[in-house]
Amino acid sequence: MSVENELPTEDQNLDQEMNQEQAPQENQENNEEQLADEYKDKFVRLYAEFDNYRRRTNQERLDLIVSANGGLLKDLLPVLDDLDRAIFNNEQLEDIAALREGFKLIQHKFKQILLSKGLKEMEAKGLPFDSDLHEAIANIPAPEKDLVGKVIEDVEKGYYLNDKVLRFSKVVVGQ
């Protein structure tokens, strides 16, 4: 055996050094690709999870809107039943006073249910005209000087719902 065979040649040394330099670079590139794939997978999963959350909350909101009036309608059913009974029983009734009294009781019951739900009538007659609360449908000469600029007649009542204007009062204003 010769010494030349045992000792690596310069070419062999150069090849080994290049292989050693390429191995860490390849390892680093593989690690970067794995990290990129991991981040991409996490992003896709997070996006899908957010999309599912958005769909679920939209569906819950729609269900809430659809069923929101259910409580009010359930509370109004007794009034509807009373009206049906009144119509049925009053077909042969000759006493008009009893008929009026029955409808007043039904109206009172109806108003109490609406009041319990936060609906409140707006008082307008005799008060100064306020465009934030009233809608003027006519101006007429004031019958008295102190009624100038005030509401003379309340044509259609306005209502508050939890202290916010639900419907403006339609009023006649004195000039």
What does this structure look like?
- This protein has 4 helices and 6 strands.
- It is an alpha+beta fold and 175 residues long.
- It folds into 3 domains: 61 residues; 46 residues; 57 residues, Nucleotide Exchange Factor Grpe, Chain A, domain 2, CATH 2.30.22.10.
- The strands form 2 sheets. A 3-stranded antiparallel sheet has the order 1-4-5. Strands 2-6-3 form a 3-stranded mixed sheet, with no helix packed on it.
- The chain starts with a helix and ends with a strand.
Q: Kindly state the percentage of residues in helix.
A: 55-70%
Order of helices and strands: HHHHEEEEEE
Largest sheet: 3 strands, antiparallel
Output mean pLDDT. 86
The 3D shape can be described as elongated
For the record, the count of structural domains works out to 3
Quantity of strands, as a count: 6
> Which strand order spans the largest sheet, edge to edge or round the barrel?
1-4-5
Radius of gyration: 41 Å
Fraction of residues in β-strands:
15-25%
End-to-end C-alpha gap:
129 Å
Please identify the structural class as seen in this structure. alpha+beta
How many alpha or pi helices? 4
Parts with pLDDT < 50 across at least 5 consecutive residues: none
> Which oligomerization state do the chains in this entry correspond to?
single chain
Which secondary structure elements does this structure contain, and how are they paired or packed?
Elements lengths: L2 H4 L3 H58 L2 H20 L6 H21 L2 E4 L11 E7 L10 E6 L1 E4 L2 E4 L1 E6 L1
Parallel strand pairs: 2-6
Antiparallel strand pairs: 1-4, 3-6, 4-5
Helix pairs in contact: 3-4
